[in-house]
Specification:
Blueprint (H helix, E strand, L loop, with lengths): L6 E4 L6 E4 L7 E7 L3 E9 L11 E10 L6 E6 L19 E2 L24 E3 L2 E3 L1 E2 L1
Antiparallel strand pairs: 1-2, 3-4, 4-5, 5-6, 7-10, 8-9
Length: 136
Amino acid sequence: GEVHLNTVTKDKESNLIQIASRGNYFNNFLTVDITDDTIFIKNYNEVGENEIRHNFHYNVRGALTIRKGEDKNSVHGWGELAILDQTKPVLHFNFEDIFPLNNRYILGLGLLPDVNKYTPLLESVTVNGVDCHNVL
C-alpha cells in the first residue's frame, strides 16, 4: 500500500489483506473491533478549525469489514478503506482535466508548515516558491 494514504489491498491467491495507514500528529487513525466472526476497522480523520491536534473531533472516512462465514468469508470496504482494484491503475493522469485545489479532499495537505490550521481543503498551497491553485 501507499504509506502516504490509507490503502487496503487483497492478495488474489492467499486472500491476505494489507492495510497501510497514515496519520501524522494523531490526525488520522484506525480503530479495530474484533468478535468471534468479524473484524471491523474504521478510519477517522480530524476535523475542526483549530490547529492540528487541538480539535478533538473526528469524522469516519471509511471502514473495512472482514467476516468469517460457515460457507464463505467476505471482505467489504468503503471510503478511505475501500479495497484497491489492482487490475486498474492506482494513479491515472491524462493532464487534460485540471480542478481547483479546494475541490479535492487531500488528507495530510493541511499539515504543511505554512498552514496555520489543519484543513484538507485549501484554496492554494506554495510548492517550491510557486503558488498552486489547481490539481490534476
